[in-house]
Amino acid sequence: MLTKRIIPCLDVKNGRTVKGINFKELKDAGDPAEMALAYMNEGADEIVFLDISASNERRKTMSQWVERAAERIFIPFTVGGGISSVEEAKFIISLGADKISLNTSAVKDPNLIKECSDLLGSQAVVLAVDAAFNQEKKRYEVFVQGGTTPTDLDAINWIKKGVSMGCGEILLTSIDRDGTQQGYDLRLINEAANAVQVPIIASGGAGSKEDFLYAIQAGADGVLAASVFHYGQINIKELKKYLKSKGIPIREEDLYEFPNRKG
């Protein structure tokens, strides 16, 4: 059985890690590269860097983050935000990222997923899907531009399309739960996991160790969080011990401090 992954997410705006509630009321949470190094030493399986302002401000992902992360950590990391062409994606990978994440640009041009997959391999292409439940239509709807703009796209259908175009992983964020610490949206996770065969990374709503467990039981292959890690509410090593005690397969060779990549 494949091990489940614990993934801290570093939302970055103007070169600093930030965190808010429902994608709003953003507060400074620290330096991205230093936080990534600390999380690696704590036992994180991967790191995700997301420039939450890049698409909205139409600017490219800052390459400095990628270079600094590549210098300091050697666990896999993903970079997303503002990647709007296959050339940009290739550049980010060349700087040391293991994966790129597409969101707004992929909705605008779904063929970008295929182009990136053809060039980099499906394992390097993550489709980030920000979804909120539409009460009127009784379905999950895709939002873009940092979760600010509705698209009227059915989230599950979009996930299926993204996989058919070549993405190797889905980063699925519940806008309704983001930053609330009220638990992941288990229905959303389950619907996505049942719809496609690629890994589902659940995001949005973690507030307790039990929340991570429930998300995995709902079908998540990885569980991503920010607030509970950034503010020291949950320690990754302790979380992994808890999940192991519940029968969840996890990577165990993380219980010691790593040197950095250039060490």
TrEMBL record:
One of its GO terms (molecular function) is lyase activity. Keywords: Amino-acid biosynthesis, Cytoplasm, Histidine biosynthesis, Lyase. CDD domains: HisF. This is Imidazole glycerol phosphate synthase subunit HisF. GO terms for cellular component: cytoplasm. Its main location: cytoplasm. Heterodimer of HisH and HisF. Belongs to the HisA/HisF family. PANTHER family: IMIDAZOLE GLYCEROL PHOSPHATE SYNTHASE HISHF, IMIDAZOLE GLYCEROL PHOSPHATE SYNTHASE SUBUNIT HISF/H IGP SYNTHASE SUBUNIT HISF/H. It comes from Thermovirga lienii (strain ATCC BAA-1197 / DSM 17291 / Cas60314). The lineage of its organism: Bacteria, Thermotogati, Synergistota, Synergistia, Synergistales. Transmembrane segments: none annotated.
